[in-house]
């Protein structure tokens, strides 16, 4: 079996919980991503999506005044780098998520997306995840 570390992207930009919405949005634009992991004191604390910024964040106030900690989702589904790809795919299907944040010992190791799984030759697994995520409205 293949471990998730073979599929995950380890070049994952993260931001601090104290960063404001403008900083988060700029990071997403620069990295061309739709979500950013949030850290506090070097440890994983949550995640902010582009949708969080628009729906939760802008309704709370100015992009310079609202912090990541104010809108981040703290309890999300995560995986570990030694997890089997099939197990990660099952998690993604069961929870209807498109991206799985990889956290090892409280620190962010990377992220794996449906596309990452599909590109590396697991088209059937990726297809199953896509069909399941299309059913729900998860935040990841």
SSE inventory with pairings:
Elements lengths: L14 E2 L4 H11 L3 E6 L2 E7 H8 L10 H4 L6 E2 L5 H10 L4 E6 L2 E7 H6 L3 H11 L7
Parallel strand pairs: 1-2, 4-5
Antiparallel strand pairs: 2-3, 5-6
Give an overview of the whole structure:
The protein has 140 residues and is of the alpha/beta class. Helix content is 36%, strand content 21%. The protein contains six helices and six strands, in the order βαββααβαββαα.
In short:
The protein is α/β, with parallel strands linked by helices.
**Poorly predicted runs of 5 or more residues:** none
Mean pLDDT: 85
Tally of DSSP helical segments? 6
The tally of beta strands, per DSSP, is 6
Radius of gyration over C-alpha positions, nearest whole angstrom:
15 Å
Q: Can you list the strand order of the major beta sheet?
A: 1-2-3
Write a concise keyword list for the protein shown above.
elongated, alpha/beta, 140 residues
